[in-house]
Amino acid sequence: MWPPVTMATQHPDNAGVPWWKKDAFIATQDEIEEMLILFKELPIDEYMWDWEGKYVDEAVGEKLFSRAKDYLKEHPLGEEKHLTFRIPAWEEGKTHRSARAFMNILSLADLGREIGLSKPPVTEMFLPLTTSAEQPIGVHKAFKEIADYHRAIFHDSKEDEHHLLDIIEVTPLVEDVPSLFSIEKIIEPYWQDLMKDPERKKRMKTRGQRIFLARSDPAQNAGLVPAVLASRAALSTISEVGEKLGIPVHPIIGTGSLPFRGSVNPTYTDTFLEQYAGSRTYCIQSGFRYDYPLADVRSALEKIQKEAPKRQTVRMTNEERMKLRAVVDLFTDTWKPTIESLAPLINLVASFLPPRRERLLHIGLFGYSRGIGAVKLPRAIGFTAAFYSLGVPPELIATGRGLQATEEQGLLPLLEKHYPALREDLKHAGKYLNRENLDFLCKRNPTFEKIREGIGMIERVLGIHLGPEKPHHFIHRNLSSTIYHRIHSEKPDGEAITRDIIEAGKIRKSLG
Fold this sequence. Notes:
Blueprint: E1 6-8, H1 31-41, E2 46-50, H2 60-67, H3 69-74, E3 82-86, H4 96-114, E4 124-127, H5 134-154, H6 164-167, E5 169-174, H7 177-181, H8 184-194, H9 198-207, E6 209-214, H10 216-222, H11 224-245, E7 249-254, H12 269-275, E8 281-284, H13 286-290, H14 294-307, H15 318-350, H16 380-389, H17 399-408, H18 412-418, H19 422-430, H20 435-444, H21 447-462, H22 471-487, H23 494-508
Helix pairs in contact: 4-5, 8-11, 10-11, 11-15, 15-16, 15-17, 17-21, 20-21, 22-23
């Protein structure tokens, strides 16, 4: 299937145990089995193999074909099913993991040749933290040079290596709000550079081009509403650039289950298909796959596969884009200082989260280990889980003041036009609000007083009530109270805190 519609990723946001395992931790050596199970048992078109954020099994090709030769003969990689590498961010002087990924792609191409495949098993790389066209162009150049050496040493120089250099794609993964709002500065010069080659240009005009939009990291770095508006603006711009260049475009949206990270889960299908209309590939993270009943997961994936290709991008005028960019500033002006002041507490709570994969430290943005200035924070999943575990969902932070300022400027109707799921997202997150915990937190840190005031603003501006509604919401509230008091006891019981965090995650059907 091209383009792939459902892409399984290795993001470790599941609270519960996968149906095919006895425990919730998925070790590196389990991921080959995971990929094959997902391909065979669910409507999953693509699996993202992460060389960026975690340890990786470099024998992926040999193990795949040794364990599932017959299956992959019927459902060939690169044609019906897709294995795509997320390589490390392109940072000069820190490219050893990228070099390993490049050689792995080339060795897989050799393996494919040996066993009679018509195409290389891996034909695409996702490039994280892309902020300029020069980065994917640089990756293309580096890969070509390595491929040339590979050919010279291991092959007859006249051999075509499956036309690998013509086939390999480097797809930018854009992860920050400013870059999403000005994504044309990345994709237009990059795609124009690719089109200098006549054969590639011909292929692009028929097959099209992908572009990957992050949703979690923009939210962590700027807040919920800015992340959604930036995604919506990017989808519009991508459509316009594709039309201008005469190529089909296939955006990928990188989303998790909870509203803060995208609201892509089996119970929210119609809502997110409308919100991200124009997206052609949806990330299906671990929480989606493993925290819901298997029948619901399968049904939702079938619906995504059927409906996503039909949804047309909602175009945004230049005037709307400019106004929404100003709206974003109204939210981020409150978000960043709020989060910076809460960093010690966020890190403390996140330290009790259970591991779900073998992760590495990240580089780069506000939301990762380097942070802004002296502020360091956990990754997006841990960040989200920490706030939910305290009963203060991050969707509710800075949103009220931003909404009030937007209303005062007469821009609320425009915001809701391009964030149609706004009320539903906030109501969903609000079911996990623990007002008693918030009262306690206000006494410890005055920043929480501003958060409490902001929650009142959300309720007033949108005319909604935030709080538990059903029995499981109240159970979650009780668990978050227990977590709060355990963490602030004289001798915190780490095992008990982790156990409660897991149980709360199972109720909301995602760790973070």
